[in-house]
Records
---
Amino acid sequence: MASGSDRNPIIIGGLPSQVPDFDPEETQEWLDSLDAAVDERGRERARYLMLRLIERAREKRVAVPEMRSTDYVNTIATKDEPFFPGNEEIERKILNATRWNAAVMVSRAQRPGIGVGGHIATFASSASLYDVGFNHFFRGKDDGKGGDQIFFQGHASPGVYARAYLLDRLTEKQLDAFRQEKSKFPDGLSSYPHPRLMPDFWEFPTVSMGLGPLGAIYQARMNRYMEARGIADTSDSHVWAYLGDGEMDEPESLGQLSLAAREGLDNLTFVVNCNLQRLDGPVRGNGKIMQELESQFRGAGWNVIKLVWDRSWDPLLAQDRDGILVNKLNTTPDGQFQTYATETGAYIREHFFGDDHRLRAMVENMTDQQIQHLGRGGHDHKKIYAAYAAAKAHKGQPTVILAQTVKGWTLGPNFEGRNATHQMKKLTAEDLKRFRDRLHLPISDKELEDGNPPYYHPGRDSEEIQYMHDRRKANGGYVPTRVVRAKPLPLPDDKAYAGAKKGSGQQKIATTMAFVRVLKDLMRDKEIGKRFVPIAPDEYRTFGMDAFFPSAKIYNPLGQIYESVDRELLLAYKESPTGQMLHDGISEAGCTASLIAAGSAYATHGEPLIPIYVFYSMFGFQRTGDQFWQMADQLARGFVLGATAGRTTLTGEGLQHADGHSQLLASTNPACVAYDPAYGYEIAHIVKDGLRRMYGENSEDIFYYLTVYNEPIQHPAEPADVDVEGILKGLYRVNQGDKGEHAAQILASGVAVPWAIEAQRILADDWNVKADVWSATSWNELRRDAVEAEEHNLLHPEEEQRVPFVTRKLADAEGPKVAVSDWMRAVPDQIARWVPGTYQSLGADGFGFADTRGAARRFFHIDAQSIVLGVLTELAKEGKVDRSLLKQAIDRYQLLDVAAAEAGEAGGDA
């Protein structure tokens, strides 16, 4: 280790500068002893003694500062390595076959006429890390439980396919259909781990980098949650997340490390493949990424195991009595190690060992070839096994294994450690021959020179294949495997929704509260009530859900070991080890990860959970949209509530809180069924149908998104002849006009429905117009239905042509159609081409701002009076009314003066 100011301090803080010295004489004796050790034995020996003293102090429970980083050597000493229970020779043969088939699969995918590519180098670096896991650690699902949850690094998928091929889980035909998912259907293999595309194989989508580590943390936490609440036995499940060192720069990768440590998730292991390379070049060319990550994980409270060097370094390190070799390892930057990975033994002898006679002496009896093959720990089965075993045995903390490897390992000098290796997809004949020779495979030169290189299979009855099957049998079955064992849930009857259907009477409530009341009744259901998982980012009170605290309680594995400040109140904050509510703090990303873990529990553990994720609408699809895409890919189910929705409804919060576009963002997600309901009875029918579609017979891999508002309104009781089909499909007539000469139609959604009804009254009283009001519960579903109809008609011209639901619904509706919402116009404009007759939309386009609701709506021209102007304008276009009326309406309602608008309803957080 470097000394003095040239190196970073090992210990951060904890200096005794403010502590009085009660025995200066004793203190001086200790300092003199240290000085003597330095003077007589050298700084490295003194440092070693200090570290041993710190270790002993911890054993004696003496509080000392944490170590930020340790030497650049393996955490587990050679003498402490456990017995390796496998057959290394057989496992090496298996790994060689897997390496070959993975590379050949990608190379063949680049053949002329296909050219879909793939990635070779990532798996080449991490192959041994996976192999030890497959042979000795990963638990399958054959016992009927969830087994281990393994988050495979996305770019390593070819290696997982290659191993599955050896086990007869995939065929050669399927390998040749890599990245040809439709043209080679049903044999096509997805490019990366995509459960939606391969629902019987992959469990967790991970290639959107950063989401894998985040998802793994919350999966481990969900396992504990399900166990604590008695829903599933997850005691034998371990979560493994395979990550890249470059990936750890994503904020999501490290953002929730503290949660894992805080909750003691010792059922979680991160394996970071430190091949020291990003996609374009070094991760930390001038630094040391393993040391940096060690500091970050240690500081967050994780157990850190460094796996830096393979066994060939053991004799050299055993000679290092002066610490000169360790010092050299500590001070050599990653960029230089990458160079060593590509250079000759002579170069390494001169540039690594050559600048100190003691280092030169260590390798004087080694050949250049032996020096060149001094390897990285992530390629050594015994060292990897020791690290995994230590991780599984460690209690009270999550573990991270930092394993150093070489990107492109074994692929030859054109690939190994090269900056461009991530983008290299094709092996030349010479590359293949070198690769074959290194792997000792019985493949002839002619096979490599004529056409596509062949796959290699040692034979179903070979020792290697039998060994693979035996190891998977001993570990509970094949992985990865996705199995859906969950049975349909018994769904609540209509009584659970009766309260919402009665309306709110004279009381005004927001649609957020209307939903919360539905949820409260559902959580009382004896059959499925316990399966609801409320999730919120430190906003339960904002959404009126603090009433759940005393009964459902907030999940905390430690319970509540303090006296709550509001313990005397009826709605006191209450934490419990068996709590039902997940309170993930101010972290939308963390909450969405909880949503995904809960929403896929039906497959992961065979026990359905019904997550209810409630959040500030603006901070959903906009902030964590990538995770909602991940949710769709993972086939997760549940309800997502964009509360405090709308661009004008949140009054004083302003621009960054004003959501006028999340419905549009939601429309881009094919798995998302999005609604913008206006009344409680609409919410009741939507939730009921959502439970049926996601958790009943013939369940679908979808999730529901409801935007709800914080503006109090009176909710009418459900009409006797309520159009349930219209509510669910996206459009129904909520209020029919009863007087007026000229007909018109107003389509409104969510909080805009009351404005439309007020506009209906004004039109009848002041302008002799009879307008019907329609509640557009889902612009998105209307469009989706219409697109499906058009697609069918395009491809089936000989059959009876389908008519979109919105077209049929409005076919007999007289007059122009004017759409209005608290969203930008692009939301209702989604259905424009399928609306018969004249169609116009009003919307809140542009940035939001802080003001009264009335002023904001007047500014965007979406209030009742502006709707009136919109209807008159369309009637004037049709020649039904004189255009002079338009200026009269503008002047009459002072539509050009924002300050002239009434303030509108105030308050209403929920």
Note: The chain has a mean pLDDT of 93.
---
Amino acid sequence: MRRFLQLIFCVCLFLPMHAAAQVKYVSGHNTWNPDSLGNHRAVVNVAVAGPAAKAVIQWRRRDDPTDKAVIVIDAKTNKRILNVKTENISRESGTVYFEPTSGVGKYYIYYMPYKVKDRSNYPNAVYSKMQNTASDEWLGKTAKSSNATLLYLESVNAMNSFYPMEVIATNTEVQKLATANTGKDYLLFTEDREHPVKMLHDLPQRWIQKGIAKNFTGAALRGENYSFQLGLYPLQKELQNVVVTFNPLNDGKGHAIPPSAMSCLNTDGTRYDGTSFKNTVNVARGDVQALWCLVNISPQTPAGNYSGTVTVKADNAAATTVKVSLQVKNQLAVKGGVNNPQLQTRLIWLNSTLAQQNDVIKPYTPLKVDDKTINLLGRRVILANSGFPDKIQTFFTPEMTEMTTTPKNVLGENIHFHIVNTATHKDIAFKNAGVTFTEKTPGTVKWTAQNTSDLLQMDVSGSIEFDGYMNYTVKLTALKDVDLDDTKFHIPFDKNSSKYLMGLGQKGGLRPDTVKWKWDVATKNQDGAWIGEVNAGLQYSLRDENYVRPLNTNFYLQKPLVLPKSWGNDGKGGMTVTIKGSTMLSETYTGSRTMKKGDVLYYNFTLLITPFHTINTDFQWATRFYHKYNKPDTIKKTGATVVNIHHATPINPYINYPFIAHDAMKKYIDSAHRLGLKVKIYNTVRELSNSAYETFPMRSLGHEIYSAGKGGGYSWLQEHLGNDYIAAWYVPEIKDAAIVNSGMSRWHNYYVEGMNWLVQNVGIDGIYLDDVAFDRITMKRIKRVLTQDGHPGIIDLHSANQYNKSDGFNNSANLYMEHFPYLNRLWFGEYFDYEKNGADFFLTEVSGIPFGLMGEMLQGGGNPWRGMIFGMTNRMPWSDNADPRPIWKAWDNFGMQGTKMIGYWVDNNPVKTSDAKVLATVYKKAGKAMVAIASWADADTKVKLNIDWKALGIDPSKAKISAPAIKNFQPAQTFAVGDEIPVQKGKGWLLVLQ
């Protein structure tokens, strides 16, 4: 069931005093096609037959009806009536003349018809314009029309109804109210939680009838997350810095609900990173601002009637005090009432700090500090006295399946700055006092260092977390006026750890000899790169104190990166990556600038040390995905082990809001668990279904949770949000219309709490992420709640290729690398070209191997031969030609569990081919090996295998080379040792050596 499908209609709404009738609002229960007739109609009755009928409709519309079409349908014949005329059309009412073609009876007047334009998943409802379809002869008869009586106003379904909070007050009613309150700067209304304020620029008629606030009365359960609204309406001027003050609610018997249990969602809160904040709320004259007041009643609160006051005040207006009376019932709310989110009991989740403590997450190990050396899983950082890394080392084997005790240096020299004085054209020399550690915990280590000169002071604050993420705040303060030729930031990579590059406008692959890059935030989502080898690398991103995470995917251009003042320097800044001396140097330059005494610039940056952990090949072979809603027993028969439940399915219908069909979801998951299947659901942050119960409370927060935008999109969005939003994904079958989230916000707190609820109450085994619009803080919290109490917490990340204009030409792997430490599998598929890109692109951008992950292919089912070089297949179900089951069967027949994967990139790989463009990866076990061969040659070719039989543990005199029959992959064939093996262009083999 969708939100609001309760039978809240069939109610009467009184018209202004001069009207004689009452208006009834009802649901049409989807009895007409809204995508041609619109979502709203007036149902009228003609009592006297004649050539023309006249209906005066008091519709009280929040939209602008100017020039919008009116369609009249004969209820008996269901045919359109062309002889129609309108007059006196306004937001408050309209007059419609029509020819009653069937005489006495009902007629339908559709007053917001539209047609859907553009793509089905990104539609735009265009409202029809009024056109004269009436004949001149009939128009002459309208002067003698009979009256048609309005029976009721009807919306196509409950979801689309305007009643009661979007039924506007008339100008006369508003003016009368204002006149009665002359001298007041604003009016204050109270409203319960079941009627969220929806209009930002109109008063609802409901408030005219209720009158301005003097008190609020409500009822709640013990332990309930209760809420109510205060509605502000400035009469004279903009209200500035509105604050809400809570006083205790007392029962007169010595019991109280203290102010600490009450808060205003709009003015105070907790950010996604756990820090508290106060929000400035200004309200323009004539606008409506809902203030959501949260009352978290303790389970220990005795039942009774509690009374107290809430005071609203603005800097430029007098305070208003409202008496609040709350009846606390004896019944105890279950878990705060969150199982009834339609009562807004989950608004408290927006301020949650669940899973914020930076506890170490498996498989990571606690950080250990020895002097200036910090050890973490598979990696080591040694700090210089400047506070920057002197050495970064990794301890992963080239195969990425094991650790080694031999370090591999990521850096050739220490990371450092060169700040060039214009007066001398030489570097300013800094003195440093060494590193001071300020925090040493298993999950986080922090330190500071101060570097000083006569002209400048550089304060360094650094931190590292257990997964290899490093964050630097570099504050540069001018002690005197100084002119600078340049400020250069050097990351000198070891040449042996800089084979590949991804970012800076470069697709992933072999690093070019030289890369030159300039900031272009308006069109490019680029602020850094990843440079490395398979078993050692470093991602770096350049930021300042004003960094704001941009929108991703095809919304980047609507909210791009903010150019860092320090690094960008009004467009002068850029980066060059090239060989310099014994290192491969990444040099970030900012260009010339002048700093006055006291000026401060922040040269902040982040680092991610890769890989994060070894690859888990056994998990790859054993975990087989079925990516479609189907019966669990049907899925079980395919050999799949994990079901991914997308949105727009019966048990997960609404995008990124899996809380409405949760009973059906739990039933499905329970049945899957009984068959040994795991179930993951689609649930991410980027856009949110309009079916979310909290849509309008969150709209009251301005742009905190929903991004600013040009509006448009599907009809529900235009009719109920009005404007100032970005329309996102739409599912025509269920009319689910999503709205784009703004980026980093308190919605992430709700998201974490929601995941926790789904694990505890529904039993999900993980999530399928379709691109990601949150940062690593939220990802860590998600991983913690998903894996609590022994739950598997499997997380897959799917991304369409972001390297295009709409997405800001970013590499998906580079964009999402901060999340990689917590993923179990990558699905980098849509718009990735598996045919035209080389093996090094597969390795860096798709496979996940240089980061400790493994992946799957999506676009067109991928290239199965090339995929097997990296241990990748594709998801089920797919087209017959891309069905992974034959390969799964070949794995099982060979016995892939327990094999050691030795990729083509490993220098001592025991199997190589005679053609450098035909690559081989070995899956080795005792006495035999499976060898994946894939070609990137320009044409069909033949190769010989160069085999180190000793390394394989196989006697070559007894060896056999066979190709098992694999449907749509290869025929059965046997080769002799030393035979030439034919390899078709773009294809390959799976060979068994034994």
Note: The longest helix spans residues 747-761.
---
Amino acid sequence: MRQDRKEPDQRRSARVSAGAGRGLSGPVLFDAVLLDRDGTLVEDVPYNGDPEKVRPVPGARAALDRLRAAGLRLGVVSNQSGLAKGLFSGDDLARVNARVEELLGPFDSWQVCPHDDGDGCRCRKPAPGLLRAAARELGTVPRRCVMIGDIGADVVAAGAAGAAGILVPTATTRPAEIAAAGQVAGDLTAAVDDILSRIERVGADAPARRGGTVLVVRSDSAGDVLVTGPAIRAVAAHADRVVLLCGPRGRAAADLLPGVDEVLEHPLPWIDPAPGAVDATELTALTRRLAAVGADEAVVFTSYHQSPLPLALLLRMAGVGRVSAISDDYPGSLLDVRHRVPPGIPEPERALSLAAAAGYRLPEHDEPRLRVRIDRPAADPSVPAEPYLVVHPGSSVGARACPPEVAARIVGVLSAAGYRVVVTGGRHERGLTAQVAGATGIDLGGRTGLGELAAVIARAGALVVGNTGPAHLAAALGVPVVSLFAPTVPFGQWGPWRVPTVRLGDATAACRQSRAATCPVPGHPCLSGIEPGRVLDAVRLLGVPAGRPGPEAVVTGGRAVARGSAGGRR
């Protein structure tokens, strides 16, 4: 009953052809869109086994046809516990799904969980099993998929699989689920608008640049430098030489980035969180250093709340002939390419969109994801050879750090569950890591620079960490993340990108969107309330370790049904 069954190479040809029709080139962010059925595609009729009750949500057919026209494959991933409860049969389910296709057009994959909450399966959302199965059937991987759903279980499943998630709330969606979602859209049409604009923004057609020396700038912390890596690779794919200007806090990360030929380190007083006074002599010296680079042009990457214009002025004074940056403020003659992006998109995509607007797109063979070079061994022989977890309790920003006593309890619970736990931290965090490691963890506090930390994380089953640089390091290494994320900044912008992730913490806390560096709420409630058992659940949701394998897929009523985690309200 499935239609348009193409082989993987045919699917790729369809995608590239569709992308070329929109003026795009190089790799795209997404190959496929996965959708929840009830409440997302059609009105939510509890335990519906009657095709006559299928009613599409407004605009659904037109929105889906736009995705099809763009070359994206479509899949449905749906919890259907009514099968386990005996409220309808497999044949009833097949007839309902056939009616959905009759009204909304063909889907390339149907993945249905037939289990109830207590069945202990690995497919029921928020477990990621259905999404992984759909990605396999569509000839892609989860990180190249977007999941659209109406409840938190849909978004959690997307994150645990490593896919992007978009929540389209309904009257039954809980406020906490909305607050925790990285991306929220008002309806299905708006979600499709978001997907297509994200694809187009990263692959936007602009006159291609070739050759010469390009100065790229990201003067901020290690995490900020890491999330700019894909955009820097896009520049490097077309330039003869790439020089990266960064600050002291980002230097170690800069040394790990592919595509960088030379690093120029200099603090910028309009960027640093604890800046010194503006010194005319220092700025004159920086201008001379910029001039000595001999750059043909510069691409200035900034975070969404920073201005590129002070540096653009210095670049003009240094004789750089072409300057590109994102700027909401009027730049006058300081910028040749003034790029704008809407708020809320992930920081790596924001940077990639600027690179594309400046004429630098990632080549087709380089998938848009974070990457680092690892050329140093693990720093300490006490790191176990067998699989282990890493807990990184510290942060350069206090408001984002997990309280030490909570982190210590997390290590204790993980250890009691049979995990080996390595605790990491910087040279100024030895007291913290000793407290957190306790008697059961392996304390590596102060023993790893960023390169050695990368080697330790690369061998881990997962990283438990706050919103800080090592989270992005794990994303660059493809290591799953349990993100203890303080809501001071948007998770959709700053959460680990394109890697399996489970977010924990109170997303509704009073510090939400405050951008506070020091916790403004007594008791640090957004992270102090994390139950260590939930961290253990998150590690298991990520499949670390995989545990006892569940049953394989079966077919119910002509539709794939994955057999074999956690609840969901359907």
Note: Confidence is low (pLDDT under 50) at residues 1-25, 546-567.
---
Amino acid sequence: MAIRRFSSRTHRLDASFLLEHMKGAHSYRRIAGYFTSSLFEVAHELLEGIPHVRIVCNVDIHPDDLKVAQLREARMMGRWNEKAIEAEALLNRDRYRRLDAFLQRHGQAVRVAPDSVCGFVHGKAGVIELADGRKLGFIGSMNETRSGWQRHYEILWEDESPEGVAWIESEFDFLWNAARPLPDAVIREVHRRGYRREVVFDEIDDEDDVAPAALIESPLYREGLALQPWQQGFVTECLRHHQMHKVVRLLLADEVGLGKTLSLGTAALTLCLLADREQQARRPVVIFAPATLCEQWQTEMLDKLGIPCARWDTVRKVWLDDQDRAISPAGREHIARCPLRIGIVSTGLMMRQSAEKQHLLGLRFGLVILDEAHKARTRQGFGADAGTPNELLAFMREIAARSEHVLLGTATPIQTQPQDLWDLIGILHQGRGNFVLGNDFAAWHRAGEVLEILSGRQEVTSAEHAWELLRSPLPLVDSTREPRARRLFSAIRQDLGLVNGETQTARSLADLSEDTREILEDELHRQVSGATFFQRENPLVRHVVLRKRVSLEDAGLLARVGVDVHPDRQLIREPHGFDALFEAKALRTSEDFREAYREARAFGKALSARGQSLGGGGGFMKNLVEQRICSSIYAGLNTVRALLQGQTLCDEEDEGDAELAVESTDEREALERLLNRLEKIEADPKLAALLYYLDCEKWLELGVIIFSQYYDTARWVAEQLAQRYPDEAIGLYAGAGRSRLYQRGDSVSCERETLKKMVAEHQIRIMVATDAACEGLNLQTLGTLVNVDLPWNPTRLEQRIGRIKRFGQKRDTVDMLNLVNEQTVDEKIYDRLSDRMRDRYDLFGSVPDTIKDEWIDNIEALGVKMDEYINAQREATGFDLRYTATMAPPDKDWRDCTAVLSRRDFAVLMAAAWSV
């Protein structure tokens, strides 16, 4: 029972130790180092013959992350992918295949333990149970790698004594019990890398493989994350339409917070690549979005999908990259010469006559995406313009007629006026999409004739009426997944002698066989889950994809994370401190603030007197100063001083470009009085409230994300907190290269990806962010959220809470604090909004995405308008059954994709400029 000592200087350790003892062994338990592809590089063949193998490895992820299976999976994948995958997979292909073969048989034989339990595992040891039943312990510095056993200087002690073996077994058992199973995603990735190969388009046979080949090594997947099943499902639906019609015309109407940007962005990439694969003309791709979302689009496309996009600056008349750098010459005409494959343009520019619009209408597009599409609508009211399309709707009809594919995105497909949905479907029907609603005489063009049928309030019972609805557009067999409906559509086409691609016919019911008419009548009397035939089978549900949050939660695809909404006296620990700050749901303010607010309102009234001279965004500019001082005193001071110094404030809004400069004496005097009051305010109550929650309510311990819609407010908050907590690393997450990291009285410019990684690794507990960057953030390691200001847009609030209310959140209920000042419009809006946020699991599912200026002007009507909207949403029907299939995980998991489009080739394709 003597101890034997080995050194790589005197022995070949793999031959003298491994080969001697592992042949025919009964079991092998090993404390190794980090889990790497080389884990079984040397001992693979020997381990294969051992019935019982257990190996515990190191993994440098936080213990809280280790507890949550999805986070454990994501963190390990992120760690693995920090190295260049291309070289790693090529050089170590055999190693990955050996490891894959072992894991396929013994997947549960490997566990991972966090650094917090054991630190870095330098103490390598193990126990081998030999064929004759003897146990042999060993301690040494090497991992199970070729370098460890053959090339490095290593030492090894072999100990057969019972006490020595028992000591090693005790150490192993502690680590094994503290560890967690190796995630399935890591096991799959081992296999993928073992068989990974780079391909060109010609080698991708199946259209379904185009998107995963391009995206499997995108930033999203390299972070260990993935597209959600319903996001992949939308891409699959796009491919179905591409196969059926050769063009894709779809409205994505998923509820707020389900990731429409990634769904639409992935679909855009897929359609681009399909066009290249089929060697079609490389036509421009354009994304139209409200000005406030353009930067978000650009950020998320790059940060998640790895797709560089150019963004049009309507003020400077130039294309910008994601760092706000000009990448084209300046001039209105250059909007038609985007230097990248995908360009992003503000819809505000389309809300008025402009040279840019005309330049765009001179192009033919491969794909057009319109986000927040419900803003393209028919004008309401009783004026001369009532019933006519607004500027955006008119423009989109023209541009859709000049486009191959058209995708529309909205979280509010049916508002108080059902006509809104027909406006959007009408866009899809233009140009090559003229099959969507059928011929010009089809009833589907006229909401009044079919709305009662779609809602289920009217049932179609006669075959004659049913045929009038069915014959144009005549459904394709593949347009439905319902077997009995497919049988009907197939029978009709056989009777009429039509090939499957034809969608319109003027033939009569008499041309159908008696058997087919019988099938039709049977279908008219059959309901599925209470839905009639024409609720399930109609042009609208064929071209509108709608998935609901509650359905995804019921299916187990989304975690049901609750939200406690603050301020709420019933939820706090320190009532005295709370009462000093809050009056009900609003912050107490000083007399100076209240007077300043009155002057801001007076300035807005002075602006209103100008009428049309404010331009398309005049309604927004009228409220700008008011909203800015309600955001923070600091932001208000910046704005007022800039205006008094003669600066012109420019902004892009949904209704057009807006510019604001002081013109009248009344305006200047109101601003001077406002400035005088703001300069007297000693402390912003929002900072005091923030500190109260961080300290007294212990939110700092839970981690917090703090949002503002204005960059100067966000930066002010970050700087104030950096002074208060000098030892904390505090992140400022913003677009256009303005992100920063603060600590110990200093700050540095910082990439967004660095900040995200620091949050994921629990190095940052306080993150301050602007809305411009919020879509790219996954902050489930933080448990609380503060809205420093209240955007007049509930959708924006939903996007914010979605940063922490997501998979991997370790808290069952997160906390959200909304800060509004007393006796302001913000307080009134929040009061109405909070009444409709009672359900802690579904705060915003049915509220409108934008609170309109006219609702604010008549604040008492705000609640009524919201309720009208909510009721209209509840009446919408017809989509739930059809799109259940697009929520489910796909049969082919993208994470298993081994045929990879090289990132270099991908980058070249995405960098192709528009040609005129």
Note: DSSP finds 39 helices and 30 strands in the chain.
